[in-house]
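Journal club prep, shared notes

We agreed each person brings one worked example of a sequence with its structure written out as tokens. Mine is Ribulose-phosphate 3-epimerase. I'm keeping it raw so we can talk through how to read the token line rather than staring at a rendered picture. Sequence first:
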Amino acid sequence: SKPYLIAPSILSADFAKLGEEVERVLASGADVIHFDVMDNHYVPNLTFGSMICKALRDYGIEAPIDVHLMVSPVDSMIEQFLEAGASIITFHPEASSHIDRSLQLIKDGGAECGLVLNPATPLHYLDYVMDKVDQILLMSVNPGYGGQSFIEGTLEKVRQVRQRIITSGREIRLEVDGGIKASNIRAIAEAGADMFVAGSAIFNQEDYKAAIDAMRTELAL
Ligand code: DX5
Ligand code: ZN
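Then the structure, token by token:
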């Protein structure tokens, strides 16, 4: 398996032709499709729900879909996304009243589960779930919008979470989301991340393959 996963965020895709955009970014070398769900309640923006995920599956998209829930409450959305064909579902612990229950709901539905921590959210949310999570997502911007700048303090947090993963002895993916581009991806990988979300750095380019190749070149150095 590839050591590093690149997960383009369709938040920056052209929604008027979403199926084609997803096909094109997969043909350009994307490993996973990152699917940003915003509810205008937990975050101050509104995107798309499970019907769009289902539509991509019905259109023929077979790649893993990584659903990042920026919604509160979370459990009803988890159920809908399990039905809609999500592969991985992550949520923000502050948005769930019963974190263990929400994680278990995802696992019982046959998807991989994880928590998302905002830039200032403490790591202690991970304390009692390291035996359960398949993935940990660290936000390197405040959630709600694409195209923001990477918050440098995230690098130290990535190092700390990588240590926790090593201590756990489990294979847990460490994903980082926000402001990632070819010029900073290597430093993020060196800090311990192995899965990289990129929205504007891919979809705002003419050539998606060139954008992804530039990131892979940095990761291979
Ligand atoms: C922000 C989203 C991110 C965003 C990343 O709330 O979770 O996935 O789309 O976009 P860029 O790569 O443009 O920062
Ligand atoms: Zn995201």
